[in-house]
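cache lookup: miss for this entity combination. No prior model stored, computing from scratch. Input as submitted by user K.M.:
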Amino acid sequence: MAELILFPASIRSELPFGFWLHLALFAIGIIAILLTSVIIFIWFERRLVGRFQLRKGPNRAGPFGILQSVADVIKILTKEDIIPSRADKFLFWLAPVIAFSPVVVMLAVVPVAGGALLADLDIGILFIIAMSSITSLGIFTGGWASYNKYSLLSSMRVVSQLVSYEIPLILSLVGVVMLTGSLSLDEMVNAQNVPFILLQPTGFFIFFIASLAEISRSPFDLLEADSELVAGYNIEYSGMKFATFYLTEYCEAIVLSTLTATLFLGGWQGPWLPPLVWLLLKITLVFSIIVWIRATLPRLRIDQVMGFAWKFLLPLAVLNILLTGSFVAFWPEAPSWMIGIANLVLLIGYILFRSRFFKPGGVTVGAS
Amino acid sequence: MAHSTDSVFINLGPVHPSTHGVFRMRAHIDGEVITDIEPVFGYLHRGIEKLAEGKSYRQVIPLTDRLDYVASMNNNLAYCMAVEKLAGIEVPERAVYIRVIMAELQRIISHLLGIGSFFNDMGTFFTPFFYMFIQKEKITDLLEMVSGQRLLFNYMRFGGVSHDLPDPFLPALSQFLREMPAEIDKYERLLKENEIVLARSRNVGVLSREMAINSSISGPVLRASGVNWDIRKADPYSCYDRFDFDVPTGSNGDCYDRYRVRIEELRQSLRILEQAVSKLPKGKVINPVPLRFKPPVGEAYSHIEGNKGELGFYIVSDGSDKPYRMHVRAPSLLNLSALREMLIGWKLADAIIIFGSIDICLGEVDR
């Protein structure tokens, strides 16, 4: 089974030590790329947020401050690793690992230029969804094991928010899957002669918002709402354990940017430039939009966040499935522009229709 | 709802990012909902009122700087007015206008910081805060020109102000007055009708008109509850009766109204500043008072419309060169008197922005 899902046989057969060497090299390679890109993306985000806030951002360490993250990493590695005396020590130690490892694994199936980074799964999209749920388990464990009320509150929010948003996230992908007819990410990229953002604007809209909530980015950053919960679930963590959580957050952001680029923006496809460059450009674009949102919007309240998922996104996702499904079932040879326009009409119509009845500011005083 | 969990006690503060200093709230929460809350003051108590009894009248002016440290000009003004009332000191016309200019600049600073940190509490990740801080720095530069300080100005004296305005001040102020309306429009464009801002702040933390009056709340918080009460209009001091300005009031008394009132007050402050600059008379800026002067036996209370509400000083003189007793009517403290009623029943995230929308300064709460 492992052989089947871990990588395509074509690459394996050319290598001297076969399966295991390939596995080791690529695994190390992916982790190295991910960690390096996290450092670069942290710097990128801080510079970009600085621009949004009319300041310069980090500009002292190295050219344009690019070594700032390196300095931060050195600082954080040399910090004392404090474990609260009443914490559950084993879970406290385990939580960052649970949170971090699935994120790395998710990157393994991202396709580049006809092959995956590590494995071209037939059920790639299912694999990613399954893996992304595990991270919330790690975050919850960390908040629970810390024996701190703030982190406990944050854990409660993790459970409710991440579980809720997973549903619209998954349902938004059904349209893409139906258009492709496959669960393989590679197939999905190949199917995008026209990027799916044009064919499935509704799916993109839901997926992007739900993934913002999944990675707990603004305006859904309730888990680490610094003005309310100080730091959220990682309040008691320090040193490398804290760094692992921090890494997890950024890795998730990068992975979900990658997914958005792969599923909706045509992945590695593009003229003139090499595929990897195209993929990186698209990832950076999506990441910049996430940073833009973070620098602009205030945070929602927990009941508004939940209401938005269940009352607004979920019906829209179901409608999207109905619409796309009817095209696929009853009129498979429909021109793609028609699918796209019908989808866009659904999105705009739904937003206009619902904005008359649904306000996130539905006031609730007292327990509801 | 039928299900309920055990109430959890949670300590908000004294070291917490949204307590704006060292305020502490002992909160009991049921899930996310606050069931009981008890404010705890005093972490920044420096005994300023007691210290004042051991200092000569003039030495108390720097102490008043440290009350509401984002608005020290106003504190100076209120204190000097109380002593002037006590001793019957006249203030030259030019000094009166300069005082008004300083007080209004200080009001703009305080409101900008108040709005900025309110949005920080709402989770905007410092962006509005930085936009407002840039303008705040420009005013700080102006005030530095006059007083040489950037935070605690110690500028006013009994019978006037310590120095006349330096030459570059008025051109720089005019330039600021030209720029600022566009800046306020910029904040408005970003935030006024933002759906999330509306969702978070409208109808949240409603303070009814009656409760606001009964809790002796003053300032923008009171006006947001729909009470047209501004001491600049109700009991004009300095030369406010010569200016044409409006008192913005809210209708709901929610967090959004409090934010709106502050924004409108920025505009009104600019109006007052423009009129004050155009009418600024020539002449001396101080009627000198001896360094250790002794006011007659008696008592005096004087109040101004501070940034956060009615700022009053009550001074009792026993005829010596030191105040026998000084009391500060601190608006930040009294505005918190309805805090418990405003917070109970709201979620933790609401509590933070309700507290932020009251806009207190801990230096003034604890004194």
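stored under new cache key. The longest helix of chain A spans residues 18-52.
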